[in-house]
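tmp note - AlpA family phage regulatory protein
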Amino acid sequence: MAELTLPPICVELEQLEKLTTLSATTIQNMVARNEFPPPRELSARRVGWLYREIAEWAENRPVSNIPPPPNTGAKKPRAATASPASQGSPTAS
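out:
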């Protein structure tokens, strides 16, 4: 029988940061301004976010007209660096 793989039901703040690429502070500020789904009480001393609410929030974000910043993690071409041997050494004449 094939194994069933499901997305998590609840995610912790650390996982949420990775899922959304937002910092914990930004998430907490957005929750306070009602711009982000609030966490759910999982037990007396633990909270988590519902994965489906986070996915719905992300899908409903407006499309951006802003291009990504230049530092997107893409590999940049390396500048050609001359090795000391190829730079030539002064020769006595």
